[in-house]
Amino acid sequence: MAGWAVVSLLLLSSPGPVPAEWTYRAKVLGDGALGLEAKFPAGSATLLTLPSRARPFVQGLEIAALDRGPFRSIDLEWSAPECARGCRLRYRFPLIEATRRLAGVAGSSLFDGGLLTSTSLWLVRPEQAPLGMRYQLRFEAAAGQRFLSGLSPIDPYTYQGPAEHLSPAPFAVLGEVSVRRFEFGDRRVELAYPPGRFKVGDRALELWVDRALRAVTDYYGRFPVPHALVVLVPIPGHETGRATAMGFGGASVRLEVGVDMSEAELAQVWELVHELTHLGLANLGPDHHWIEEGLATYLEPVIRVRAGLLSRERYWRELQAGLQNGLPTPESRGFNGTRSWGETYWGGALYFFLADLQIRRATHGKKSLDDALRAIVAAGLDLRVFAEVEEVLKVGDRATGTTVLFDLYQKVAHRPYPVDLAPIWRSLGVRSEGEVVNFDDRAKEAQIREAMTQGRGR
Ligand SMILES: [Zn+2]
């Protein structure tokens, strides 16, 4: 009840209009379903909505005017004329059943000990969100359970986010999960996983996550977002499964981890750092998916090699092999809008590798891609928001005093961009022969090569 009490106090203490906020209160009921109540202020849209696949699970949807009058059942069309003057909703959502049936949708999955979900699947809302509208969710889990979301926390039970990004929303987890909190200055990461399920042991699992978080923090100089949720979902076997970062109004990472994985096997996993790297760049839209994935593909091994989690030899060997996948093919039309795996991941990585090299050349080693990416994070252009690609690249360029990111983008985005990599490897002094990598310290740009894997000031 505390959630409504806070809202009522706000109403009493402010003589002005009703707070411009959508508020939700969710509670796990005795049968495991969610009981939900929502309030929307005057001026709200009069048609309610939910993703079409989740909609059939909503039970007993009722509406009333805000703070007065009885509830009535809502028709099948979900029309809600009361919301023009402010309205209240109440309904049930069988979360476990829905998660089972919606497996894979917006990250839905049941696992031994809990479930992974997205609030976008069960928060019924007005069809349009006015500009700047925020929403608040207070969640009461059952005894012994925890609920955590990648949304911004207000207190341990309450989260908030921008209503325009209610869908998609960051991941959330509910269940008998262990929660470990990592602090990096004023920034915080919550790790949630079902305890006792992983053979390697909970302590080793947490240390492994801690190393990845520290490596990313070291690269950026700070953790890239104020708050993030990382959920480890147990799956059978010795390998990792699906790995996804989800932002919009918050930041979250879901990683499926094989319960039989050993410490040595975990140490080989690159996906966690890859997903964490996504937190440091805004959502850029489907046409620029290659920039999002290209950055994560280029940066993940850079971060791991600098943190000592990957050898220098392996770093260069895999970069040389990987970048071949990003070179133009007869089908290439430029990277914007590409759906090809090679162009999306390695074409994007090629873009960032060349940009890093060109920034270092143009500034005589004083600046690098590191400076551009730190500036992008400092400007808040991270996974919590959507941004235009030009804005992001210009913030990066300003930090290096160059126009490398923007100019190179213009070259690769709209037409095939052939690159002869052999002279670059010669200049950097990197020569791979099978599994063996030789470094030539007398090569013209050997210093740039070393700086790329060492970082500055280390
Ligand atoms: Zn990715």
Explain how this protein is built.
The protein is 33% helix and 25% strand. The protein has helices at 2-13, 95-101, 202-220, 263-267, 271-278, 289-306, 312-323, 341-362, 369-378, 389-400, 404-413, 422-428, 446-454; strands at 21-28, 34-40, 48-49, 59-65, 72-73, 87-93, 109-111, 114-118, 125-126, 134-140, 146-149, 152-155, 158-162, 171-175, 178-184, 187-193, 227-235, 240-246, 252-258, 430-433, 436-439. The strands form five sheets. It has an eight-stranded mixed beta sheet, covered by helices on one side. Strands 15-16-17-19-18 form a five-stranded mixed beta sheet, with helices on one face. A four-stranded antiparallel beta sheet has the order 7-8-14-11. A hairpin with a 5-residue loop joins β18 (240-246) and β19 (252-258). The chain is globular, with a radius of gyration of 24 Å. It binds zinc ion. Zinc ion binds next to α5 and α6.
* C-alpha Rg (nearest Å): 24 Å
* Overall average residue pLDDT: 94
- Number of DSSP strand runs: 21
Give a list of the ligands.
Answer: zinc ion
Low-confidence parts, pLDDT < 50 over ≥5 residues?
1-16
Number of helices: 13
| Amino- and carboxy-terminal Cα gap | 52 Å
Percent in helix: 25-40%
Identify the strand order in the major beta sheet.
5-4-6-2-1-10-13-12
Strand content: 15-25%
Class computed from helices, strands and strand pairing: alpha+beta
Largest sheet: 8 strands, mixed
Shape: globular
Walk me through the topology.
Elements: H1 2-13, E1 21-28, E2 34-40, E3 48-49, E4 59-65, E5 72-73, E6 87-93, H2 95-101, E7 109-111, E8 114-118, E9 125-126, E10 134-140, E11 146-149, E12 152-155, E13 158-162, E14 171-175, E15 178-184, E16 187-193, H3 202-220, E17 227-235, E18 240-246, E19 252-258, H4 263-267, H5 271-278, H6 289-306, H7 312-323, H8 341-362, H9 369-378, H10 389-400, H11 404-413, H12 422-428, E20 430-433, E21 436-439, H13 446-454
Parallel strand pairs: 1-10, 16-17, 17-19
Antiparallel strand pairs: 1-2, 2-6, 3-9, 4-5, 4-6, 7-8, 8-14, 10-13, 11-14, 12-13, 15-16, 18-19, 20-21
Helix pairs in contact: 3-5, 5-6, 6-8, 8-11, 9-10
This protein binds zinc ion.
